[in-house]
Amino acid sequence: MNFQQLKAVSEAIGHRFNLTETADVLHTSQSAVSRQIRELEEELGVEIFLRHGKRLTGLTAPGQEIARIVERMLQDRESLRHASEDFRRPARGTLSIAATHAQVRYRLPDAVLRFRDAFPQVSLTLQQTAPPQIVELLRGGQVDIGLVPEGLPYVPELVRFPAYSWSHVFVVPRGHPLLDMPYPALADIARFPLITFEEGMVGRMRINQAFAMQGLKPDIIISAADSDVIKTYVELGLGVGIIAERSYDATLDPQLVALETSTLIAPITTSVAVRRGTYLRGYTLAFIQGMVPGLTLEQIRAQVEDLETAQVA
Fold first, then answer.
1. Which of 62, 83, 104 marks a domain boundary?
2. Planar angle of CA 34, 38, 44, nearest 5 degrees
3. Are residues 116 and 249 in the same domain?
4. CA 124 to CA 144: how far, in whole Å?
5. Which domain, by its residues, includes 231?
6. CA neighbor of 275 nearest in space, from 143, 102, 110
7. Measured distance CA(122)–CA(263) in Å, rounded
8. What is the pLDDT of residues 77-94, one digit of tens each?
9. Which residues pair with 273 in a beta bridge?
């Protein structure tokens, strides 16, 4: 048994049993991937994959359990490498973070500044993408940390540490009729065209729920992935914008005014998420603590190293 065989199994599963794609990722031939899988099956004495001719079509019952063990072995191998790096070069390395555009643009700068002051020799990579893709990047080990909003399906492979809550804010151009109302209600706002997040985003789901609960059908004329784009079209006078509160700054957005509203849309909690069972380097732990004040190293390690939850789920 060797790690090439384990990697072949893992990548074949990750690429939906497509050996051509698996071979491309592993920079080898399809026949080599097939041979590595067969050799592992012969050594274990069970078939891992279901087959139709030469094609892989799924996992056998033993294969489902073996696949979990394979992923754990590969993760442990990566953890060994990280642990050795932590002892040899504790303040040098890389840290990759996945988050939405709004979090990268408006929430992370302060945390990144503090982190760079403490760990100037650590190279940071910031990936901007949608929440479902953040989860997949974490599950695949492609990023170290993800900022994940509530409302996504539970993923047992991930550990989440609630970090902060945020609300939506309604913005309009100067002179908009809604500014004549002291505290506009959702019914008042729904009389105007709206510009907000695109479908599938957690913020949009919460917005849809708020209007639906009052029996309102908002006229959303433009949807976008980030608040900066939304603000651009609100400035053109095309509609009322609904954005993340931290995305609005009266000084930086002089053409826009935030409506005086109570909490018309329920707030959303964003968590710092990591892959369960991962060895977290010292600077990674420090970054998490910077995002979640009061969280101890013991609390982080106890949850991240608890593999039983993932196995039971």
1. 83
2. 150
3. no
4. 11
5. 168-266
6. 143
7. 40
8. 776 776 777 666 666 788
9. 146, 160
> pLDDT for 152-197, tens place per residue?
888 888 999 999 999 999 999 999 999 999 899 999 999 999 999 9
The dihedral sign for the CA sequence 10, 11, 14, 20: negative
Domain boundary among the residues 43, 59, 83 is at 83
> Do 39 and 10 fall into the same domain?
yes
Task: Grade residue 310 by pLDDT with cuts at 50, 70 and 90.
Answer: very low
Question: Quick check: 274 and 280 in contact, CB under 8 A?
Answer: yes
SS3 labels along 132-169: HHHHHHHHCCCCCEEEEECCCCCCCCEEEEEEEEECEE
What is d(CA 103, CA 37) in angstroms, rounded to the nearest whole number?
A: 41
Where residue 309 falls among pLDDT bands split at 50, 70, 90?
very low
Confidence (pTM): 0.70
- Residues 6 or more apart in contact with residue 206 via CB below 8 angstroms: 151, 168, 265, 266, 268
pLDDT at 215 over 90: yes
Cβ 243 vs Cβ 167: under 8 Å:
no
